[in-house]
Amino acid sequence: MSFERVCALSDLTVGTAAQALVGGKLVAMVRDDNGHVHAVEDECSHGKVSLSEGDVVGCFLECWLHGSRFDL
Question: Which of 24, 34, 72 is CA-nearest to residue 52?
Answer without folding.
Answer: 72
